[in-house]
Request: fold
Amino acid sequence: MYGDATGTTSHDTDHDPHDQVFVLLGWAWDVAVAARAATRHPVKRANVSDICALGALIRIDHDHAETVDLSHPLLAVPLPEVRAPIVIDGWHRIHKARQTGVTELPIIFLNADDERACRLMGGGIERRR
Reply:
């Protein structure tokens, strides 16, 4: 699924929760590919206030956010020319954490090679079909 200019993902409960694409401002990542790559990286902890900077751009389904598991790690990728990694999976968890006062969440930071492997478009890459 491809979204619009705001951060979007599909979260159809009839499908694998990682069967989605995260789209943000002309960039897109295959979350299933990212999730497979994440198995090679350690789970760390991140301060919610440090990772929520893009939150105003992300479309949140509030009903879905109430049901998410905060113990499931977020996925973040580095971007070329950008200092801080961005979260490509877990915005509903970030929203729930902020609403419930949770200050830290588990997170997996992918490396640049993994980011490139899961990127579908953006940064000079045309949309894959």
In short: The mean pLDDT is 84. The longest strand covers residues 104-109. The radius of gyration is 14 Å. The chain has five helices and seven strands.
